[in-house]
Amino acid sequence: MRTPPANGPDSPGIPPLALRRMLAASRRQFVTAAVLLFTLVAVSIANPAFLSGQNLRDLLVQSAPVVIVGCGMTLVILIGEIDISVGSLLGLLAALMGVLASPQRLGLPIPLVIAGVLVAGAAIGLLNGLLVTRGRVPSIIATLGMLTVLRGVTELVMGGEWITNLPPSLRWFGTGSSLGFPFSLWVAAAVAMAIFALARFAPLGIRILAIGGNPDAAAIARISVPRTKLLVFALVGLLTGVAAVIAVPQQSVIESGIGAGFELVVVTAVVVGGTSIRGGYGGVVGTILAALLLGSIRTTLVFLDLGESAVYWERAIQGAFILVAVLADHLASRPGPDDSLAGARA
Amino acid sequence: MTGRDRAARVHFGVLAGLALILFGFAAWLEPSFIAPATQRDLSLHAFELALLALPMTCIIVSGGIDLSVGSICALAAVVMGLLHEAGAPIWAACIAAIGAGAVTGALNGAFIAALRVHPLIVTLATMAAFRGLAEGLSRARPISGFPPEFTRLGEGYSLGLPIPILALAIISLAAGLALSRTSWGCWMYAIGSNERGARYAGLPVDRIKIALYACSGTAAALAGIVFAARRNTAKADIGSGLELEVITAVVLGGTSIFGGRGSIAGTLLGVLIIHETRELVSWHWHHDELILLVTGTILVASVLLNNLASRRAD
């Protein structure tokens, strides 16, 4: 229900819905960036040790897996679906990596281990996509089922034991550096830039936005909706594999609980970053900023020196961040008539 | 009979058949497992799942979802434990904890109804916030030392049945009647099928939503207290992952995740299948990981089969 411009095309009329939505998304990215900057500056003033290179590097390294999977999850949510199985998938891929690499189990060469993890991640993502497109199972149900199944498979594979002796050449992927920066940061930066370019400039990105905005219209425009969805689900699986390759070797021990609750942190980062949970608008930049913001909460609590019990409030603050983001969004803009009465569809 | 009714009946029939096969298999595999005394004792383990599945069914029927129930369990248990530790009488502490559950649930509802934010986002946020509140308040330490009359609440017997299960039977009956026989129940289906239409028809959509989430919070608080009573410990990690189990049971029971379709009877059947599978697997194989594998497979397979059945019916 938009009013046409009053005095010809040049007058500042009410912008069309799509433009308003784009502005809303970029405003949320701006707000996220501002909050992140404010947090960093405030903590640095309170405790200058926060700005040490080592601390900032740790912060970035901890956030890298959320950034990597968050980029894929942004695409999944943009297309109007969701994948809550990524945490269990990360756990399964960690177990797989341990079994493939550990000298006591299979002891395969490192390139094969990494290829195996990436292929398995993409294959399980593809399976999610097939359940959604071919099986017509709603994505939240399909991936909820996979969340449970994959966790069960992980525990069967691990058999209640820990895998401890990862070869040093594999540990390098988690702890090593090249050109002065941790390897995991290079990977995260490369993934972020690739997905940003893909979402913004490639035809696939436009197709994803079109399907998320209106799947029926996209189908009429001859976009292959199932194929695009399959691709996006496979991509998030592949990226979970990438995250496993850089995150799992950081620890010296692989246990079956790795990745529990990871899916919620990733979805939170996407939502706080301004991507609409109904699909159709949003972007990768907001997700990356939000992932850094969520990752900095714990470090911030430690460096503000509020006493040892402060870290117990980390999750409460994470939750409050989302509520505040949602509230700010609501106060800043009255939703249009199309949004206000829309039914609740995940 | 419309295609939808037919599909729902087919699904219910498939589930009932599955439950019968499960019991038959259990009788063949472990005769002692299906003895009434065993079943009575094991039924205690289903209490939290079943109690939370009732309001969750109503919420999903009305087109929403509540991910925060597991966290409210923990928050209520911690509130109860801390108050008792501070010297409050145990029953007063319980009532305060249930009140806290109702308030936190209503808060979910208010965010969803007044701000028109997607319930998945709101309850994802409060899931973290309430669990964080429980961790912050209790500093993540276990609280114990409850009086025996309180712990009896979790595992005492009355009329030959465990007290929580008796309470559950009454609450289930009430929820079933409310959803299928009252105008409020009818409105929930209306909101879930077409929220805009329900608003234009003048239904008090916002009030119903707030009431539903408040009910869900109250039930979660009750579940958290009973769980703490059974373990004689209140801790901030109570009920983690419970929300996903509850949703699994509800969806397995034939409630559409998009709203507008579902029933309490179906949900109870879903809870029964998940509960019996879980107990049988850990009774016979002592493998908890198999439970996850089987539960997840049943969930996806039941929805897939349901889709195939409804495609035939169309």
Properties at a glance:
heterodimer; A: 346 residues; mainly alpha; ABC transporter involved in vitamin B12 uptake, BtuC; two-stranded antiparallel sheet; 14 helices; 68% helix; globular; B: 314 residues
Structure, described:
The complex is a heterodimer of chains A (346) and B (314). With 346 residues, chain A is mostly helical. Chain A has one domain: ABC transporter involved in vitamin B12 uptake, BtuC (Orthogonal Bundle). Chain A has 14 helices and 2 strands; from the N terminus they run ααααααββαααααααα. Chain A has a two-stranded antiparallel ribbon. In chain A, helix 2 runs antiparallel to helix 10 and helix 4 runs antiparallel to helix 5. Chain A is globular. The N terminus and C terminus of chain A are likely disordered. Chain B has 314 residues and is mostly helical. Chain B has a single domain, classed as ABC transporter involved in vitamin B12 uptake, BtuC (Orthogonal Bundle), CATH 1.10.3470. Chain B contains 14 helices and 4 strands. In chain B, the strands form 2 sheets. A two-stranded antiparallel ribbon of chain B has the order 1-4. In chain B, helix 3 runs antiparallel to helix 13, helix 12 crosses helix 13 and helix 12 packs parallel to helix 14. The mean pLDDT of chain B is 87. At the A-B interface, helix 5, helix 11 and helix 13 of A face helix 6, helix 10, helix 12 and helix 14 of B.
